[in-house]
Amino acid sequence: MRWITNSALAVLLAVTACAVPTDGPASEISSDDLPENLRPGYTTTTTTAPVVPTEPAVFYLIDQVESIVVSVVREIRPITTNAGRLRPLFDEFRTEEERNIGLVNQLLEFDLLSATRDRDLLTINITQDDPEADVSPILLEAVAQLVWTATEPDNVNRVRVLIDSQRQALPTSAETTDEDQTVDRSNYASFNPESQAQGEPESTDEDPGDVEG
């Protein structure tokens, strides 16, 4: 006969005691001792991110085939600064469809430093992203985009473009301006899609022939 040692007997009694349920009376647990989500009256709340208001704004891209500006509309946050109104034009905001049909944004080669308005004149200060790059071939189109976009709001009629805070002679549709000259849409009229040359209208004059007196 195999005898059970005292230590083995103690383990056996402990296991047996844990396995046997007790019929002791239930005790009430204070709500203060419960987790918050188990307390009476607890309700879950859902936080919703606030909706950021937007408003439509018109920007101009370049159709290099037709050499015209093309207006595109974007929803942007309500603008409180002149620079904020122009800022999207210096980022890649074209849609895939706009890129596929050949619209370009020449202002991607520049960055916006500031824009300040004095009555109807908006002074825009820009800089080249790459100071070593030759931007002269695209400068006309870039300024045309900038002028057409800047004068879209009714409160701006004229634009002065600074490069690195310096006044510059600017290329226009007709000739180069002097350093102190401001520009407006009329200086870039050749980019106006509504002013493109139309076909010569057919003559409606008829040969009157001999007219009897």
Could you write a compact summary of the structure shown?
With 213 residues, this protein is of the alpha+beta class.
Account of the 3D structure:
This protein is of the alpha+beta class and 213 residues long. The chain has a domain at 55-189. The protein is built from four helices and seven strands. The protein has helices at 6-19, 82-86, 96-100, 136-150; strands at 55-63, 68-76, 103-104, 110-118, 121-128, 158-163, 166-167. The strands form two sheets. A four-stranded mixed beta sheet has the order 4-5-6-7. Strand 6 and strand 7 form a beta hairpin. It is elongated.
Rg, alpha carbons: 38 Å
Listing every helix as H and every strand as E from the N terminus to the C terminus, the arrangement reads HEEHHEEEHEE
Number of helices: 4
The chain-level structural class is alpha+beta
Average pLDDT figure:
81
The spatial strand order of the largest sheet comes to 4-5-6-7
Characterize the main sheet.
Answer: 4 strands, mixed
Shape: elongated
> Strand content of the residues, in percent?
15-25%
User: Which regions have little confidence, pLDDT < 50, spanning 5+ residues?
Assistant: 1-5, 7-20, 197-213
How many beta-strand runs? 7
Distance between the termini: 157 Å
Helix fraction by DSSP (H/I, runs of at least 4):
10-25%
